[in-house]
Structures are given as C-alpha cells and as structure tokens.
Amino acid sequence: MNTEDLAPNRNVSTGLLQQALRHGNTILFRTDTELRYVWVHHHDPAFDTARMIGKRLDELAPPESVATIFRQYERSLRQEERVETDGEYVREGKPMRFHIITEPVYDEGMRLIGIEGVVIDRTEVEDAQRRSALLEEIRTLAERIGQMGSFQFEVRTGIVTISDEIPGLLGIPAEFLNGIKRPADIFKLARVVRADFRRTALQRYRELVQAKRPYDIRVPILLPDGKERWLRVTIEIIQRPRKRTWVVGVIKDVTESMLDSLRKDRLLAETHHRVKNNLAVVAGLLGMQAEETRDPHAMEALANAASRLRAVSDVHELLYRSSDLAHIDAHTYLNQVCASVRATWPNLLVNLTYTCTSDPVQWSIDRALPIGLMLNELLTNSWKYAFVGRSQGAILVRLTHDADGYQFLYEDDGNGRADIAHVFQASGTLGVNLITGFVAQIGGTYQVSTREDGTGFRFVCRWPESLRA
C-alpha cells in the first residue's frame, strides 16, 4: 500500500495512515454518526468495498460474530476517544486475529461526523512468529542435547545463517564458513561427503528445491584424520508471509546409531547364512537317506521333506544376499524353487521346460515362505504324476500384480482329466492339505481346473493388495 492508493480520502488521519503503511494486510474506513460506512479502502484490490458503503458492520456480518468490533465503534463515537483492541473472528471457517484502532472524526467546525479506523489482520504475522519461535526453540534444544548443528537461508535475500556446531560436525575449519555468503555456497559443504554418496546427496537436494519435498538423508563424510562419520541431514522449506521462503536444515551426528545398525545387519546376514547352510545340510541328509531306502513310500516321503527344506533354505539364501536383509525378489525366488525341485528328482526321465515370470515384486520372509512352499508342492505333484508315460512336458509359473492385488498362476501340460478339480480336493494328501493351508495363511483363494484347451492342470491363487507382500 502507498499514499497514492488513498487518494480518494487524503483527509484520513496521519496516525492511521502510518499504521496502514506499516502493516500489509489492513483495512482503512470511515463511518457517519450512525456507524454506516462512507469510505473503505481494502489492501486487496479485488475485495468489493462498494457493497459496504451505506451499511453498518452488523448488517454485513452476523451480529454475534462482530459484536466486539461494533462495541468499539460505538465507544469511539459516544465517548469521542481513540480506542485500540485485539480480537478474533471467524472468516470462512478459520479463526482470524486482528488489531483495530478507531478514533472520532470532526468537520471543520469541530462537529462530530463519525469515526475512522484501521483494521490490521495479524493472523499470518502471529502464525509466522509462533512457527519461528518454535523452530528456534527446537533448534536450541536439539543442539543442547545432541551433536547437532543447523543452517538456514532466506531465498529472496540470500541471507545465510549457520550455527557454530557445523564446522565441528563436518571436520572443517571454522574459517571455512566465511566463504559461505549465499545459498549456492552451501554446495561447497558437499566436498566432505564420501565420493560415492556425493552425487546422490546433491540430486536429492535439487529435488527438494524443485518439488519442495522434505529432504532426509544419511551420508558418510571423511574427516581430516581419515576416519568416517555418518551424518543425518534434514532440510525443509518454510513459506512465510509476503512471499518469504526459508530453507531450514539440521545436521546430526548419527555415527553410533549407523555403526550399531551395520553391526546388526551383519549379524542378521550371518544368521540367514547359517540357517541356510544348516537347512541345506539337513536336506542333503534326507536326500542321501532317500537314496539308501528301498521302500518306495519312505523314499518319496524323504524326498518330499528334503524338497520342502530346500524351499525354506532358498529364502534365507536370498535374504542373506539382499540389500536390506528383509525382502527378496519374487521372480528370483520362484525360479530358484523351480530349480531346487528339479534337483530333488534327478532320476525322472522327462525332459521338462518351465517358464517362470513375475511382475516386479519384493517379498518379506512371511510372504515368501508360504508361496514358495505352495509352489514346491505344485511342482512336486507335476513331476511325479503329470507326465507319466511321456518324455517331455512344460510348466508355466506366472505372478502378476495390479491394483486389486496379486495373482499366482501355475500350469502344466501334463495328462489332465476333466474332473481334476474334484480329484484335487478329494485326494486328502499331505501336499493338498499344505497348499490349502498356505493359501489361507496369505489370506487368498484358489481355483483348480484344466487348462483352457481342456488338457493339463491349472491352479490360480489370488490375494488382496491390502495384505503386505
């Protein structure tokens, strides 16, 4: 707002004009002795002030919502005195805080002709002050209780503020900060980040600036003595009134927690590795026993047990090799189960080909185990019964994922029969009971049928997206 904006009424008091010019969100007005508006100037040019002319405040808004303001109008008029008050009212469902100044107005003959005033909307200013005070309190507390430093810069002016703790955290001389005069100089601090992490750290920072996303990353830095330190860098963009934007960051030493996490990861990896090895030994022993057994039923039972153990062992092997030690790639696991089952039955004289495909899916051990064991039972069933009297065959395994959830498809082109669904359900074998239990474990449903051409065997299992993979 400037003085030219107030040209329609240059007789507005100097004191009120100064208040209007000092604050951004203001309303200047004058009323007659009946407190009807005769002149209004709003800080927002789009605001329709014409609708206010000739009306009282309690005619423009619900009387109960403006009662405090209207009583101030009446006091200034009747007692002929300057009145200042703070108040709050609800506008469009949101509480708005204001400061209002009113004073009487006289004509040249010193007759009272109304009041004039200024309404200062303090909502954004007070909110910004609260946020700023809270941020400062949090920053001070954080720096007091931990190895932490902070920095901030104002985008428009380029003013940079860096706390005294930053040089010690980064292992750089305090004098280095003298060279950081503008926001672009912040990038100079990236030189201490370990080379293999530097590109990622800078890319994430650019994403923050472009998309205004929160920035939270852990990076290793190299200290002058050659030691490594892990820092957690958190940055956010804060919007303030009058289009002021601040970038605020906190840097914390998380070396101990990161080293502890790495130690736990190594221990967990070693555990998966040992479990995998132990299960492989037991599976091998069962396989050796099966080869020594002459009873065909006992041989089959031992081979089945060995195959199931290998399916569990495969999970632990992939977890041991995974990056986060918690999830495995579904496609890799399904293919590995297929290979393990084939190795369990080396004496079957059938040239089998299998196709195993999967959408990109990561599984936890809780999801991978039941599906891997379910696939193990289906493969074992096909190897043993589907290709009797045949020299070759094909098996298809396909996992798909969409908005509705997951679908697991298993097919073989073996010696199917029209009543295969009834035979499957009525068989009551351990393998069928296990499959039914695994499906229930993942919260799914399944259907059994022949393939679309009426041959072979088809098994389809579905489970919803809401269940974690």
* Major sheet: 5 strands, antiparallel
Can you tell me the CATH architecture of the largest domain?
A: 2-Layer Sandwich
> Which class of the largest domain in CATH terms?
Alpha Beta
Q: Briefly note the CATH topology name of the largest domain.
A: Heat Shock Protein 90
Which runs of at least 5 residues are low in confidence (pLDDT < 50)?
1-10
Instruction: Please count the helical segments.
Output: 12
The sequence of SSEs as H and E is: HEEHHEEEHEEHHEEEHHEHEEHEEHHEE
Q: What fraction of residues sit in β-strands?
A: 25-35%
Task: Summarize the structure in words.
This protein has 469 residues and is an alpha+beta fold. It has three domains: 119 residues, PAS domain (Beta-Lactamase), CATH 3.30.450; 128 residues, Beta-Lactamase (2-Layer Sandwich); 207 residues, 2-Layer Sandwich (Heat Shock Protein 90). 41% of the residues lie in helices and 28% in strands. The chain contains twelve helices and 17 strands. A five-stranded antiparallel sheet has the order 2-1-5-4-3, with helices on both faces. The protein has a five-stranded antiparallel sheet with strand order 7-6-10-9-8, with helices on both faces. Helix 8 packs antiparallel against helix 9, helix 8 packs antiparallel against helix 10 and helix 9 runs parallel beside helix 10. The longest helix has 38 residues. It starts with 13 loop residues before the first helix and ends in a 5-residue tail after the last strand.
